[in-house]
Amino acid sequence: MDVRAIIRQANGDVCILRNVDSGGDEHWSLPGVELLGSEVPHIALDRQIRNKFGVPFQLNRYLGAFRSSSGGSQDNVELLFTAELDGVPQDSDVRWCAPHMLPSTAHPLRRFLGQCSNDHARSRASLPINSDVVVLLVQPFFPFSDREALSIPLGLAGIQAVLQAHRIPTEVFDCCLPTEYPRLVRSLSRLRPAFVGVQFHSDMSFDWAIRTCRWLRSVLPEATLVGGGELATRRAFTLLSDHTLDYVVDGEGDLTFAELVLATRECRPASSVAGLKYLDDSGSLVSTHRRTYVRNLDDLPMIDIDAFDWSQYGQWTLFTSRGCPFRCTFCSSAAFWQHSIRFQSPARVVDELARLKERYGATDIYIADDIFTVNRKRTVAICSEIIRRGLKVKWSCLTRADCVDRELLIHMHSAGCAQISFGLESGNQSSLDRVNKAMELHKSATALLLSHEIGIRTRVSVIFGLPGDTESDLRSTLSFLLEVQPNEIQLYGLTPHDGTALYANLDNLGVRIINPEPAYWSRDVLNPVCETDLLPAARIVSLAKEFITSLQSVGYTYLSDDMPKKKIGARKTVATSFSPVQGIGAVQAEDSLSSGTK
Ligand code: B12
Ligand code: SF4
User: Fold this and answer.
1) Confidence at residue 148, expressed as pLDDT on a 0 to 100 scale
2) What angle do CA 545, 551, 554 make, to 5 degrees?
3) Higher pLDDT, 131 or 328
4) How far is the CA of 50 from the centre of ligand 1 (A)?
5) Would 135-287 and 314-591 be classified into the same CATH topology?
6) Which helix (H) or strand (E) holds 83?
7) In 519-551, which positions are buried (b, 16+ CB within 10 angstroms) versus exposed (e)?
8) What was the pLDDT predicted at 482?
9) 73 or 363: which carries more pLDDT confidence?
10) Is 323's C-beta closer than 6 angstroms to any atom of ligand 2?
11) pLDDT at 576
12) How far is the CA of 323 from the centre of ligand 2 (A)?
């Protein structure tokens, strides 16, 4: 049995519990965690519990219970069971926490219900693979998904589009949606896929992706498991050597995955496929020759939106370019795309917008490119084409302040641009220089004020406590924000993502990770991931609270975690938790204000 329990203690600390197989005996060790034994405890527990999605699981064998004895009166207890859903074994344990022991309803363990890994049932569950090659693409369950922010997983959708162009039947399951995990379980025996592709999206969801792979491995032992996305690319060796995956697609996956499937079908070796990583028979890592990026993104087929239950998603998202040429030290996205940038043509972008509007009734579309307006000529052409076609659609985008000017903003506004997100990061020039933002602060002020003047709402993200930041640097940021007053302020805590220059230099930069478990990184500045030599975590939190109070005093509404991000109807908001909801809510809010409905 290979169980890893993550226990969040009442005091907020996270314990990681691993079992060490010592000569057949299971030995559990971790300071502060007490093994309660395998006697069924005297706690009323329904054998049929429901997971986060309300799906009932049948609990089978009781494995044991653990208490994280943090010393306080609110210790947590975790019970481990084997479990089944519709006869298909789940991961080897079901986590359950005695509710009366939980400090609050918001406690993360409440959201843990129903997640598991099961070795015992492996043999029982084996499903033979389909003789016709069928591919399954899976976005793993992630318990902290913000429903309003969910959008079609475009990476997987793009891979599906290429596979389908090769007539390879492919189904995508986005287990962040409540209905998808049960649908996946129920579809397995029908599909019996030969290939399963799993997305590794972020540091935060990495463990959930591993759990998903282990479970898939146990129920589909003959299928080839392929991982892709940023975290699979970065941690390929680990994922291959512990047999979580058979192959990792390195970087851009649209063509590589399809070629791997085709090569297997045609009995060609994996070594003939560019952009792959796998282990050879001696266990050494093989990286096939590097795949060059798809230069013209128009060469990729349009995604099949009808393959998704699109009515369940919170926002319509579009990607019209990939990458960013800048090198901010904290940014993982630009690093993943190796600081290159490639585009769709203006005609293709407007075709996509028109399809979303006309066929799916999308009224607000979020263009999620890292830096939408980096190519001024292309942006002008896109806006002109929207206007020429008379397409009435509101859209929002992300960009840098030095990639807009008055004329461009007016043109974007005429073409339906309702909101722009600028990565401000800090209102202090030396802080920006320290993270290699390559931005003159006055340009941010100009871009924000111009946008307001023209009628485009603004959103800024601020990273609170950058390396080397002093209290006075943060106060400069507050003064900046009070002066320009963007419509939405997103206060993030510093989060060192794997693969960034920040992550590689933590010690030199005087940054310490104080929350060791990425599964719990929320980026919420009030629950910091890091502290620095100059700003201890407690000080970061108290300063952030001071900030919020100052912003409230000039009319900002504080969006707490549990408030809906859309339809708030406030002109100015400040938020601390991660909120990828971009344009839609804002536009609706502004509309309701101007039409007096609020
Ligand atoms: C849209 C988006 C979302 C959406 C949709 C997620 C999704 N599944 O697609 C939502 C809002 C749900 C989301 C949630 C989160 N996100 Co997000 N997200 C993005 C964003 C803006 C774009 C992703 C995208 O669609 N790119 C376009 C497609 C074409 O590229 P792609 O997804 O990378 O896919 C390509 C390759 O990676 C590869 N590939 C990807 N998956 C697979 C799978 C297989 C099998 C193969 C072979 C290949 C492959 O092939 C694809 C085509 O080339 C990125 C930032 C960015 N610019 O990339 C952040 C980003 C990836 N997200 C991030 C984070 C932190 C999160 C959250 C943890 C936030 C939170 N606390 O809720 C969650 C985690 C959700 C999860 N399920 O894991 C961070 C990750 C940082 C890190 N290194 O950890 C990023 C980089 C944002 C940032 N700048 O910080 N996200
Ligand atoms: S400009 Fe934005 S997308 Fe580009 S590297 Fe900096 S933070 Fe990342």
Assistant:
1) 80
2) 150
3) 328
4) 28
5) no
6) strand 76-85
7) bbbbbbbbbbbbbbeebebeebbebbeebbebb
8) 97
9) 363
10) no
11) 86
12) 9
The strand pair at 394-399 and 364-367 is best described as parallel
pLDDT exceeds cutoff 70 at 487: yes
Please say if the pLDDT value at position 32 is more than 90.
no
Bridge partners, 138 (sequence order)? 173, 198
Instruction: Decide whether any atom of ligand 2 lies within 6 Å of the 333 Cβ.
Output: yes
Residues 6+ apart with CB under 8 A from 478: 427, 547, 550
| CB of 496 sitting under 6 A from ligand 1 | no
Angle of the 441-454 helix axis to the 406-414 helix axis, nearest 10 = 40
Residue 335 CA to ligand 2 center (angstroms) comes to 9
Which pLDDT band holds residue 466 (cuts at 50, 70, 90)? very high
Strands (E), 23-75: 25-29, 33-37, 48-50, 56-68
Q: Is the CB of 423 under 6 A from ligand 1?
A: no
Ligand 1 centroid to Cα of residue 333, in Å, is: 9
Cβ contacts of 572 within 8 Å, gap of 6 or more: 485, 486, 487, 488, 489, 551, 554, 555, 556, 557
CATH architecture assignment, domain 135-287 = 3-Layer(aba) Sandwich (3.40)
pTM: 0.82
Would the CB of 176 count as within 6 Å of ligand 1? yes
Name which of 61, 56, 60, 66 is nearest 28 in CA terms: 66
Q: For residues 493 and 483, what is the distance between their CA atoms, to the nearest angstrom?
A: 22
Any ligand 2 atom below 6 A from CB of 422: no
Tokens of residue 81, six digits: 């069971």
Going from N- to C-terminal start, the domains of the chain cover 3-121, 135-287, 314-591
Q: Give distance in angstroms: CA of 484 to centre of ligand 2.
A: 22
- The CATH architecture annotation of domain 314-591 reads Alpha-Beta Barrel (3.20)
Q: Which of 327, 337, 371, 440 to mutate to test the pocket of ligand 2 (most atoms within 8 A of CB)?
A: 371
Q: Which ligand is nearest to the CA of 334?
A: 2
Structure tokens at 526: 């009030």
Q: What is the mean pLDDT of residues 252-275?
A: 92
Backbone phi, psi, residue 168, to 5°: -100, 115
pLDDT digits (tens, 9 = 90+) for 270-321: 999 999 999 998 889 999 999 999 999 999 999 999 999 998 998 999 999 9
Q: Which ligand is nearest to the CA of 230?
A: 1
